[in-house]
Amino acid sequence: MSRTRGEKIFAVVNVVVLLLAVAITLYPFLNVLAQSLSSEKYIDFGDVTIWPLGFNFDTYKIVASDPTFWINYRNTVVYTVVSTAVSMVLSTMFAYAISRKDLRGRGFFIGMALVTMLYSGGLIPTYVLVNGLGLTNTIWAIALPNAISVFNVLVMKSFFENMPRELEEAAAIDGLSTYGTLLRIVLPLSKAVLATMVLFYAVANWNSWFPAFLYMDHSNLYPVTVYLRNLIAGATGAQDAGASADSNLTQISANIKAVTMVLTVLPILFVYPFIQRYFVSGVMLGSVKG
Q1: Cβ-count burial 46-67 (b if 16+ within 10 Å, e if not)
Q2: Contact, 121 vs 207, CB < 8 A?
Q3: What is the mean pLDDT of residues 124-146?
Q4: Which of the listed ranges 17-21, 33-37, 67-71, 117-121 does the model predict with the highest average pLDDT?
Q5: Is residue 85 located within the same domain as residue 228?
Q6: Dist. CA 160–CA 105, nearest whole Å
Q7: How confident is the model at residue 148 (pLDDT cuts 50, 70, 90)?
Q8: Structural domain of 49
Q9: Which of 21, 41, 56 is the last residue of a domain?
């Protein structure tokens, strides 16, 4: 079927608008990548746009040649995987429980969760608690205190509530327990929301640096975000103190922020395409037939 003139005009306008949106979205990433590979004099004068000027790989070499960087990078991977796994298990169990209208005290549990969004124990009481439990200098100091995001739990709760109850009733008739229904019926049909929550938790844990900075006393326990934060602080402090005679320090202080962003964002960019395929609507279409 041939398209009308109006449809053709709409298609052209649509393509132009989408290309502009892609360009606006992509430019900051290309600019940061170009700065991370440029010489400091071009960065200082603001000449770098989307193409590196005075190609310089010194900061990457300096960072990659430090064994501590790779130790901290490994720590970040371990912390992210463990923390995300703990968060997903606890959040899924809590969200599924409060999504069931027959749960006794359901309103109380939802209310307690909402209260934590408005009030917190504070930094000092949290530190005293973590220290008192003997969690400092362990992975659990990072994984447990912020294991559950109430916002994520409420999103999962809404998803579970919209799931047809006929599925759970059929599972109960077939003899499945509550846990069996969750594991064999609910979770396989919840890949979209689970993938979204995994991405949310993984990104938050990957970018997190303050809990490790607060609860870890040894540099070999730091995640890579703390390593890069200390590198930025050291390079900036050295430059402010008049260390411009050292070309390495000058180069590092000029583009370390760009290098930091590139090294931090790249792993997430590689993981995202594998999760994106689950971001679909209508995942339960056809699961219940009338």
Answers
A1: eebeeebbeebebbeebbeeee
A2: no
A3: 91
A4: 17-21
A5: yes
A6: 18
A7: very high
A8: 1-56
A9: 56
